[in-house]
Amino acid sequence: MSDTHITSKTVLIDRQPVVLYSALNDLSALANNLPEDRRATITATEDTISANIQGFNFGMKVAGREPFSRVTFTQTDGSPLEFEVHACFDTVDDPSRPEADCKTNFHLELTAHLGGMLKMMLGGKLQGLLDKLADTIAAAAEGRAPDINMESFV
Predict the structure, then answer these.
(1) Where are the beta strands (DSSP E) in 17-55?
(2) pTM of this structure
(3) Beta carbons of 109 and 131 less than 8 angstroms apart
(4) 3-state DSSP assignment of residue 139
(5) Residue 37: count of CB within 10 angstroms of its CB
(6) Would you state the pLDDT for residue 40?
């Protein structure tokens, strides 16, 4: 198996890093904010979340927290893939508007341990998945209705 490293696109979110960190820091609150039909197959605590997606059990846990700059997630036992995801928040101050709240540059970083066949099957889709997740998190953080249709990536 080899490591695959993928970084999502960076999205500018009109919220402070503390807001994003707080939202992603508690997985049970994150799950509770999903649409009702998406919550049916999800089990979550503050530190873990698991779901059944198209017959596959998938789970992750918070593996590290760096307040207001990064939350690290890893797979839980029983997940079919070994991975680590970093949700990264970088403050962007607008010097032309010192009275304004700061914004956040947000991106995701993925390291996955994939075998040759799995890497061929998933490699190209993982970039799209990370970019889609970054857009979804940005939309939700700014109060816009996110497009949570992830089936095309599974």
Answers:
(1) 42-44, 48-53
(2) 0.82
(3) no
(4) helix
(5) 8
(6) 79
Tell me the three state secondary structure of residue 2.
strand
Low-confidence ranges of the chain (pLDDT < 50): 150, 152-154
Q: Distance between CA 6 and CA 136 in Å, rounded?
A: 17
> Are residues 34 and 127 in contact, defined by beta-carbon separation less than 8 angstroms?
no
pLDDT value at residue 149: 56
CA distances from 38 to 90, 91, 105, 122 (A): 29, 31, 27, 23
* Distance between CA atoms of residues 14 and 4, nearest Å: 31
Q: What does the pLDDT look like over 65-86, one tens digit per residue?
A: 999 999 999 998 777 778 999 9
Side chain identity, residue 125 = K
Sequence-separated contacts (24+) of 36-44 with Cβ below 8 Å: 38/148
| Length of the chain (residues) | 154
Residue reference for tokens 């960190």: 21
**How far is the C-alpha of 66 from the C-alpha of 61, rounded, in Å?**
15
Residue ranges per domain, the chain?
2-153
DSSP 14: S
Fold of domain 2-153: Alpha-D-Glucose-1,6-Bisphosphate; Chain A, domain 4 (3.30.530)
